[in-house]
Amino acid sequence: MSGGDGYLSSHLWDTSDLYRNAVTELLEAANVMKLDPNIAERLRVPKRAMIVSVPIRLDDGHIKTFEGYRVQHNMTLGPGKGGIRFHPEVNLSEVAGLAMLMTFKCSLVGLPLGGAKGGIRVDPSQLSRQEAQALMRRYTTEINMIIGPDKDIPAPDVGTDSRHMAWMMDTFSQEKGFAVPGVVTGKPIEIGGSLGRAESTGRGVVYTIQYAVQFLKDNGKSAPKIDGGTVAVHGFGKVGAVAAEEIYHLGAKVVAVSDASGGIYNKNGLNIPDVMKWVEKNRVVAGYKEAEPISNDELLALPVDFLIPAAIDGVITMKNVGRVKAKIIAEGANGPITADAMKDLEGRGAFIIPDVLCNAGGVIVSYFEWVQGIQNFFWSETEVNNKLAEVMSNAFKRVTDNYLKYKCGMKTAALITGVDRLNKAMLLRGLFP
Ligand code: GLU
Question: Does the annotation mark 117 as catalytic?
Answer without folding.
Answer: yes
